[in-house]
Design brief:
alpha+beta; binds glutathione
């Protein structure tokens, strides 16, 4: 088994944090996105979308999509649970995980893809849409600050994959100057807590 990874990209970090929280070690293969190794035929055979991360299993099959990879490891290593402990809890965790991915991560990466030099010439950019994404990301951080007023973690009382997605999205937001506001005390408290976990360095 090996994990095709990129140290510089946010989605692969979600999987690395998840693995760290579980105490799982998987051999890692770095793919250089800057050199477009992810767009070469050998990588496209692993994931036709050319995106990272990708988990390669011992039978030679591949799993792409960060949450799908995490789902695999949740099944093989149930403790500590990061995706819910019973059907209702798992549904709530999934609700928050999807919100963090769709509402926070996608707006941060939408801003990055549409405004940052890194993607110039790699993808069509619409800077005005990037700025719209920036505004939406800011609104979602304000909302999260309210959500965290009465709970320790995003999905409730326990640290879950929803926290990982939000943490990675917010940390990556710095690249395009999307940041937690100084008045967002609940979000700041939560961010300090997740950043203090050993997995944050993954
Ligand atoms: N939905 C995918 C998104 C994967 C993705 O967008 N990966 C980015 C890095 S964060 C990538 O590989 N980008 C390379 C490129 O666009 O050329 C997931 O959750 O894993």
């Amino acid at each position: 088994m090996k994990l095709h990874d990129s140290r510089v990209a946010p989605n692969p970090r979600r999987v690395r944090i998840f693995l760290s929280e579980k105490g799982i070690e998987v051999p890692i293969v770095q793919v250089d996105i800057g050199k477009k190794e992810n767009l070469e035929p050998a990588f496209l055979a692993r994931n036709p979308l050319g995106r990272l991360p990708v988990l390669e299993l011992d039978d030679g099959s591949h799993i792409a999509e960060s949450v799908a990879i995490c789902r695999y490891f949740e099944g093989t290593h149930p403790d500590p649970p990061l995706m819910g402990v019973d059907p209702a809890d798992a549904a709530v965790v999934e609700m928050w995980q999807r919100r963090m991915e769709i509402e926070v991560m996608n707006n941060v990466t939408g801003c990055f893809r549409n405004t940052h030099d890194y993607f110039k010439g790699r993808t069509p950019q619409v800077p005005e849409f990037g700025e719209v994404c920036r505004g939406w990301a800011g609104e979602r951080l304000a909302w999260l600050d309210e959500v965290l007023a009465d709970r320790e973690f995003i999905a409730g009382g326990c640290y879950t994959i929803a926290d990982i997605t939000a943490q990675v999205a917010i940390d990556f937001g710095r690249v395009v100057d999307i940041r937690i506001g100084p008045d967002q005390k609940n979000l700041s408290r939560w961010h300090e807590a997740v950043s203090a976990r050993p997995s944050a360095s993954a």
